[in-house]
Amino acid sequence: MRRAAVTVAVTAMAVSLAACGSAKESGDRAKTSDAPSRTDGRITIGLLLPENQTARYEKFDKPLVEKKVKELTDNKGTVVYSNAKQDATLQAQQVDTMVTNKVDVLVVDAVDSRAIAGSVRKAKDAGIPVVAYDRLAEGPIDAYTSFDNVTVGRTQGEALLKALGDRAGKGRIVMMNGSSTDPNAAQFKEGAHAVLDGKVTIGREYDTKEWKPENANANMEGAISALGKDDIVGVYSANDGMAGGVITALKAAGIADVPVTGQDAELAGVQRIVAGEQYMSVYKSYPREAEAAAEMAVALARGESLDSIATATADSATTEGVPTVLVPVVSLTADNIKDTVVKEGFYTLDEICAGRYRAACDRIGLK
Questions:
Q1: What is the average per-residue pLDDT within 71-96?
Q2: Which of 31, 68, 153, 326 gets the most CB atoms within 10 Å of its CB?
């Protein structure tokens, strides 16, 4: 599996991640002199998101990008949106449509980071800059924004070790990684292994097809069958959706008090944290990521430099030095729900504590 490599050069933070693969297309990215110039603000940005099973894309990313584009263009900018529903072929067709319709810039969260390379090249040949959103797509990308994905994995691993305490060396854990087609999943896994290796015994490890909760559920059932329900002390789950599938399998097997990690701070994940079913999630500020994507897209459409926006660079397997914005992450537990997802307006306390979760909220003092 190829791993995207990120090299960060920021004023307040410096992160260096090892590069894999060579990059020969750095000279192919759109120079500001080649990019479209839309100084009147009347620009069209194509937004392509990968799937609709994870709640974040429709609830946060799409409306946040639309809002920021309007703000930056005095309501003259337009966002044209498509969702690939986890289908790389469909996403390629959506890129073709965007190219045919001559959007000014594409913002693409790739279903398959390698398969999308040809589509990125097609956009480039048509003079359309491409911003890789959340996942570093291959091909001549002009800009990229995401989170520090290795740090996400480290954050999850550190939280799992904290939850395990003395149990870390007394049983085995299961690792439920994300899809092998997602470069972020490889980086999450890298970060988690950097923390967990040598401190826990990994009984079973899976790359979960398409990040689907049902696939994670089936994998977890297989792990329980292979390891026995008394030998599993914890589960590394790369995101909240899969954590839900994992927890369903644990409950069905009668296994309790096993810490499970997550990511994305989905409402269902936050509620499981409140209820004590899931130990943690990784809270990522989608507003900051979406705003960075919109800022880079509008700048590219206007033919402006990204120097004041992108304070980092990233290397994919095909392209070096992609201007990059990385957004910090936070370990979300029952202790800081109010200071993170509630404070930033992701969810209200009424949403989190609805129905059967009211008593759990009261129990942990979430009021």
A1: 96
A2: 153
Rounded-to-integer distance, Cα 314 and Cα 7, Å: 5
| Burial (CB count <10 Å: 0-12, 13-18, 19+), residue 133 | buried
48-71 pLDDT, tens per residue?
A: 999 987 778 998 899 999 999 999
Residue closest to 91 by CA, chosen among 58, 65, 63, 113: 113
**Are 198 and 14 contacting, i.e. CB atoms less than 8 angstroms apart?**
no
pLDDT, one tens digit per residue, over 24-48 is: 344 344 444 344 555 566 899 999 9
pLDDT for position 20: 32
Which residue, 69, 67, 139, 66, is CA-closest to 302? 69
Nearest to 178 by CA among 206, 203, 137: 206
Q: Which two tokens stand for residue 294?
A: 């919109």
Is there a contact between 297 and 105 (Cβ–Cβ < 8 Å)?
A: yes
| 70 three-class SS | helix
Q: Distance of CA 333 to CAs 75, 154, 282, Å?
A: 38, 15, 9
Beta-carbon contacts of residue 329 (< 8 Å; ≥ 6 apart)? 147, 148, 151, 152, 155, 282, 283, 284
